[in-house]
Amino acid sequence: MDKILFDCISFARRAGLLLLKDFKKVKEYSKRGHSKAIKTIYDKASENLIKRLISKNYPEHSILSEETGYIEKDPKYLWVVDPLDGTGNFVNGNPLFSVSIAFLENNKLKYGAIYFPISNETFFAERGKGAFLNGKRIFVSKIDKLEKSYFVTCEGVEKSKKRKAKLYSIIISKAVDIRKLGSGSLECAWVASGRAEAYLTFKVPPWDVAAGVLLVEEAGGKVTDFKGREWSLRKCDFLASNSLIHKKILKLVKDI
């Protein structure tokens, strides 16, 4: 295993174990600006640990993280970090939270790791070498019909109630059922491991899904925005699927 991939996994696990110690101990939190999203001291503590580990081992590498934003050094190498994905769940004693770390070289995803502390599940992927759960290779599902598919979704940072209502109406009418998990990295991991056939959300920030994008693609899935354009580090509408139903979903959501 490449050292950087090993460290993606190691750093995510260390931060996750730090969060696990304080799970169900949250006493206060604050809002992020004018959005519904919240933040806690635990988001910051996890991020500080990961930043210290990256800076110690890779002092010339750049970092993009949810709490701090962009720390620019050598632009060729970039770590994209969500130190606590699913803060709302964490605050409410819900176990669906994770730590997500991706590594890009020359703006291309190369490694990704997602750690779920409660279930002790470590998802990771390397470009061209597959996706894995606790060391075992994983693949997307082989379901090719919408009416047999399970979807996962969340609101992202979309403010338009009309857009959200339209999306939910479409997917509820087409899928077997939908799940709203509250953690973008978890939702990507579910698609990558065949637990769901597609994940749709609005205007998702890159740290929520960067590692998950690589995980889905290396498991045989496909990731685009609602117009079918390739994922990038910009905030955008987001569709990850098992690839077999991707075009069918795009036809439904392209005009939302």
Write a brief structural summary.
This protein is α+β, with helices and mostly antiparallel strands and 256 residues long.
Word description of this protein:
- With 256 residues, the chain is α+β, with helices and mostly antiparallel strands.
- The chain folds into two domains: 3-138, Fructose-1,6-Bisphosphatase, Chain A, domain 1; 146-253, D-Maltodextrin-Binding Protein, domain 2.
- Helices cover 34% and strands 30% of the residues.
- The chain contains seven helices and 15 strands.
- The strands form three sheets. Strands 4-3-5-6-7-8-9-10 form an eight-stranded mixed β-sheet, sandwiched between helices. It has a five-stranded mixed β-sheet with strand order 12-11-13-15-14, with helices on both faces. The protein has a two-stranded antiparallel ribbon with strand order 1-2.
- Strand 6 and strand 7 (108-116) form a beta hairpin.
- Helix 5 runs parallel beside helix 6.
- It is globular, with a radius of gyration of 17 Å.
